[in-house]
Design a protein that fits this description.
Layout (H helix, E strand, L loop, with lengths): L1 E6 L3 H13 L2 E6 L2 H10 L6 E5 L7 H11 L4 E7 L3 H10 L3 E5 L3 H19 L7 E4 L2 E4 L4 E4 L2 E3 L3 H11 L5 E3 H9 L8 H14 L9 E4 L3 E4 L2
């Protein structure tokens, strides 16, 4: 069963989300605050595929809850709900480890498409791959079976989105990859969101893999185009 935890303080929006998720085959647990959602997450020992969080909630805000959940699990999918006026909050959520965000107002088709896309990545990441091969690039070793990345023998903790991005780059070394190509490869052809989600995830990855994130050696920028894995 596809399990999803929803935290949204507005009753009308929460009911709308829950109804549409249940219609699409999800087992939904919903809470009106982030604090209650975090409690349920802990009590279930993280037994959820996806967590859907509103950014603005009474008590602890969604950004903080996102950060706390990501500390507990690198594999759970996290989607944020935000208003259009909260642009910086969206960036903050992605930097804290969210996989995607949905801007209010949204329709049922967009909501389900975004949730399904994250669920596919979570499911793919949890499977044991038949191909046990490793991709080696400089000091990095990416294992496609264990879904891990190491640098100089040290494990780098990645979310499933970050792993897919790294996998795409390491399979295409020294190739300039356009932002839209990265977006389609990782988020899918029917992704509703903005291409800026690629930039934020690259920024987050640089903080994890580069010795000097502000002067990247590996994940380099191709100005006006996209990014390249330079090795």
């Amino acid at each position: 069963m596809k399990r999803i935890l929803v935290a949204e303080d507005e009753d009308v929006i929460r009911d709308f989300v829950v109804i549409n998720l249940k219609r699409s085959g999800y087992d939904v647990v919903d809470m009106p605050t982030g604090d209650e959602a975090l409690r349920i997450f802990d009590e279930s020992q993280g037994n959820f595929d996806i967590v859907l969080l509103d950014i603005m909630m009474p008590g602890t805000d969604g950004l903080t809850i996102c950060k706390e959940i990501r500390k507990r699990s690198s594999s759970v999918g996290i989607i944020m709900l935000s208003a259009k006026s909260q642009e910086m909050d969206k960036v903050g959520a992605l930097m804290y480890g969210a996989d995607d965000y949905v801007t209010k107002p949204f329709g049922p088709a967009e909501l389900i498409a975004r949730v399904d896309a994250v669920h596919r990545r979570v499911t793919m990441s949890s499977k044991i791959h038949e191909d046990p091969s490793e991709i080696k690039s400089g000091p990095f070793v990416l294992n496609q079976r264990s879904r891990t990345l190491k640098k100089d023998g040290q494990n780098i903790d990645l979310t499933q989105v970050e792993f897919q991005i790294m996998e795409f780059f390491l399979k295409n070394p020294n190739v300039a990859l356009e932002r839209n190509v990265i977006l389609t490869q990782v988020w899918g052809e029917n992704y509703f969101g903005d291409v800026k989600i690629v930039d934020v995830n690259i920024r987050r990855l640089r903080m994890k893999i580069e010795d000097e994130p502000s002067n990247p050696q590996y994940l380099t920028t191709v100005w006006g185009y996209g990014y390249k894995w330079s090795i």
